[in-house]
Amino acid sequence: MSRIIRILRSYAILFVLLMVLIPSATGCYRPVSAATSGVAMNNSVQIDFPNSITFKVQAKSSAKVVQLRLHYTVNVQNYANVVSEGWAMFTPAASVSTQWFWDMRKSSLPVSAQVEYWWTALDAAGQSGETAHATISFDDNRYKWQSITQGPVTLYWYNGSQSFAQALMTAAQQGLQRIESNTGAEPQGNVRIYIYASAQDLQGAQLFAQQWEGGATFAGYGIIAIGVQTDQLSFGQRAVPHELTHWVVGQITFNNYGAGLPTWLNEGLATYGEGTLSSDYQAALENAIQNNEVLSVRSLSSPFSAVPSAAYTSYGESNSIVSFLINKYGKDKMLQLLEVFHQGSTYDDALKQVYGFDQDGLDSLWRQSLGIKS
Length: 374
Hints:
There is one protein chain. Helices cover 40% and strands 24% of the residues. The strands form two sheets. Strands 1, 2, 3, 4, 5, 6 and 7 form a seven-stranded antiparallel β-sheet that branches. The chain has a five-stranded mixed β-sheet with strand order 8-9-10-12-11. It contains ten helices and twelve strands. Helix 2 (162-183) crosses helix 4, helix 2 crosses helix 5 (263-274) and helix 6 crosses helix 7. The protein has helices at residues 2-21, 162-183, 199-204, 233-253, 263-274, 279-290, 308-329, 331-342, 347-355, 359-370; strands at 40-48, 52-74, 84-87, 93-103, 114-123, 128-130, 134-137, 146-150, 153-157, 191-196, 215-218, 223-227. With 374 residues, the chain is an alpha+beta fold.
């Protein structure tokens, strides 16, 4: 009989523990009893794209609530799962209603970025509470988006016909095939492309956009945003594979050291991914060659000029350098170069390891291929 009583007592203890640990349908832990209850919580989120996210929370307890923390993590390519915290400001009380405001002017997110979040609470009696984890999308709900999907690409648009969107999707697929055929680089995961109706609409979706910006790639998020007017389809058919190439290359070369690519390689591959070099870039390249004003490979490692004429020359020359490397040494070497950059190598060391020369050596060989004396 005593053995049966001990078993029943064990089940009773187990039942009490389960009541403490199992979350309720509202995402808050169930209280054990009125005397030892935890902190009951509920929450909501308000998005004001592209300016802010407001996380709201209400908490109640038998003792004063003294601490409320928001925990959140952004779905972005990273070697470590980074959890950030926001501390809500309030006056301790048995019933509290407060919020934590994420000002995008301090740390902005791209359109449709995913954020996982949850709240924790503590009261004066040492009791705690935690909401269920939830995920929100930082969507631009100012527009009525339509979407089509093919392979790893989902394309969103709100202005223009189905054929307009399909033409851009076709350009995307051709761009992926082109970059894989010529460099061996393949997409990893999926990407979302947001087609805004104009450069102005695109810039209005970003707090820190440049006035000349027509497209942006957020490689770690798997997100691309481009402004394409319906009467400028040819621009979109170049811009889409250009930004897609940035995404593919960004995935391959991502590393934990914060090391990036020389600009000539990054933009050279992106223009290569477009297909035929644009007439503006081609004309600028030819003009630089004819006037003996070709920039050095090393100088092209830095960000390009914001002056259009100088930028066109830089893009044209970068495309020429990348074309030289692929045509002379093959796609396997180019893929190997990208993999070396993934290891966090410096510009010169990466070139030496794969090709046997540094940026100055590349400059000399490239100029020779153009018929230019070093």
